[in-house]
């Protein structure tokens, strides 16, 4: 047995949103122990400078490497698009990144119009520009910065009037443009899917990256002979540097979970 297979999977995000990715990884890879870092104190990353996003991503990576993680999932679109190239060139551990799923949306669309709801940091990044330039030129991308959404999710206000108002403001212009696919370009946003569906209806396809990221994590672990072959008996640990109430709510029902409030 490869001793490295027992090491945990590390996951970090600017806050609790990356738990949408954690849930997919945990479901697909139940034998794996995971360590999740929620940098909620610095959320959201989307409004920060590229340099600041890089600094925070380095700090998060080094924290997870101190926990002996065998692979790191950057469960944040903004951190991926602004820092993963640097992280991959600087650390001797595999990284899994997250990009908005505009390529599958461009294949699925019939109206040739897709909407993307994402942070400013993601939409303005070099990696997003590179990815979007590769899709069919006939497909029109309607971009919308989801300003304020992450803050409301982080403060447990998903069902607030403020959230309803922001989603209406961001989604109605896309509907008027007749988009038939909506790409969620932030790992926080899958928690808004029920509310989004109330506005856009069932016919519009909502696409996020969670399942694809979990599959890619499994593929890389298999390729490197790092996939755990034995049931996980250790706790899945969640570190958060802000109040842990919202994280406890999101992880309700999951067993073998330990949430630690810690300054880092």
Give the termini distance in whole angstroms. Answer: 34 Å
Class computed from helices, strands and strand pairing: alpha/beta
- Which geometry do the CA atoms define? globular
Strand order of the largest sheet: 4-3-1-2-9-10
Average pLDDT score: 94
Spatial extent as radius of gyration: 18 Å
**Which regions are unreliable across 5 or more consecutive residues at pLDDT < 50?**
none
**Biggest beta sheet summary:** 6 strands, parallel
Helix segment tally: 11
The amount of helix comes to: 40-55%
Give a count of the beta strands, DSSP E runs of length 2 or more: 10
Strand content: 15-25%
Run of helices and strands:
EHEHEHEHEHHEHHEHEHEHE
Kindly describe this structure.
By secondary structure, the protein is an alpha/beta fold. The chain contains eleven helices and ten strands. It has helices at 19-28, 50-66, 77-90, 102-108, 120-123, 126-133, 149-154, 161-176, 193-200, 210-223, 245-250, and strands at 9-13, 34-38, 71-74, 95-96, 113-118, 140-145, 181-185, 205-207, 236-240, 257-261. The strands form two sheets. The chain has a six-stranded parallel beta sheet, with helices on both faces. Helix 2 (50-66) packs across helix 3 (77-90). The radius of gyration is 18 Å and the shape is globular. 42% of the residues are buried. The model has no long low-confidence stretch (mean pLDDT 94).
């Amino acid at each position: 047995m490869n001793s490295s297979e027992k090491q945990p999977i590390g996951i970090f995000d600017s806050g609790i949103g990356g738990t949408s990715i954690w849930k997919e990884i945990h479901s697909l890879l139940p034998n794996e122990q995971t360590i999740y870092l929620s940098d909620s104190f610095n959320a959201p990353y989307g409004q920060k400078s590229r340099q600041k996003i890089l600094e925070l991503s380095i700090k998060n990576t080094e924290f997870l490497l101190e926990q002996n993680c065998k692979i790191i999932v950057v469960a944040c679109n903004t951190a991926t698009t602004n820092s993963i190239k640097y992280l991959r060139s600087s650390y001797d551990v595999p990284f899994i990144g997250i990009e908005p799923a505009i390529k599958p949306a461009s294949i699925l669309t019939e109206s040739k119009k897709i909407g993307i709801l994402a942070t400013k940091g993601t939409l303005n990044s070099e990696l997003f520009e590179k990815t979007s330039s590769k899709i069919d030129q006939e497909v029109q991308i309607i971009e919308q910065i989801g300003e304020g959404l992450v803050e409301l999710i982080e403060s447990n206000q998903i069902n607030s009037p403020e959230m309803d108002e922001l989603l209406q403001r961001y989604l109605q212009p896309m509907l008027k443009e007749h988009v038939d696919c909506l790409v969620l370009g932030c790992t926080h946003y899958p928690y808004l899917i029920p509310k989004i569906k109330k506005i856009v209806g069932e016919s519009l396809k909502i696409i996020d990256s969670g399942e694809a990221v979990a599959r890619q994590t499994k593929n890389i672990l298999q390729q490197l002979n790092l996939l755990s072959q034995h049931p996980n008996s250790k706790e899945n640990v969640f570190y958060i540097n802000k109040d842990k109430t919202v994280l406890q709510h999101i992880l309700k029902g999951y067993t073998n979970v330990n949430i630690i409030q810690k300054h880092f």
